[in-house]
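Lab manual, section 2.4: Encoding a predicted structure.

Procedure: take the sequence of the chain (276 residues), apply the prediction step described in section 2.3, and record the output as structure tokens. A sample record is shown.
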Amino acid sequence: MSLAMVHLNAGAATDMGLVRAANQDAYLASPPVFVVADGMGGHDGGEVASGIVVEEFARLAGVGFDPLAAVPAVEEVLAKARERIVAHVQHRREEGSIGYWSGTTVVAALLAADAEGPKWLLVNLGDSRIYKLHEDRLEQVSVDHSVVQQLIDRGEITPDAAAHHPERHVITRALGPGGDAEPDLFVVPLGSAGRLLLCSDGVSGMVPDAEVERILREVADPRDAAERLIAQALAAGGEDNATAVVIDVVGWSGSSHAAQVRSEPVSLEEKLGALP
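Recorded output:
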């Protein structure tokens, strides 16, 4: 089976924020692959981990993949990225950096397919987020891998209380040495996700969902929408690195040819984000 011809338009923006000394976020906007990674482990550790993830997904976007086998392709990319991050940490520790650690969250959206036609394959690992806008209503697709989300799930705190909880930044899964690196995978029909947002917690933790929904609903151009979200995060205090990738499904139609993806031109800088 071949994918339909799918027309995409995407925009991305990132900022160091007003508190951090460096930007450890990285992103990729290279149709049909979109990624946001929020690095952790100190200045260089976080930048390395998020950069590795973007590099590996960029290779997948560059060589192409079978849209009917997107899940194993993603699993291979994440395994290779984790292998490289672990090797980097081991090397730094052998050089004398005792206690050095490097890891990252990952959210990704890949254009895939099944017997029914084109789909979004959405990937989540950590507390960066994936939202979709459908019929002008915002829905969070991903579920945070975090301590506060576990507390919410057990009914011990409310979502409002989570925003101010002292452990709100503690995550339970990440891509790096040790711990749980199992991603959540979601398959979403294109028709139910006309606009997607991938963002780091520097956006979702600073901009209320109601404001995110308003921006995504009212700002038509995805580049402008991404920039507006970053501006709102900075206006709210800019306490963390902030990154947003907004993807619009402009339309698609049947085709007997191999899968193709069209998008508005995206510069190399936009495609690779904070890739070192």
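Check your result against the sample. The helical segments are 42-63, 70-94, 147-153, 159-162, 201-204, 209-218, 222-235, 268-272.
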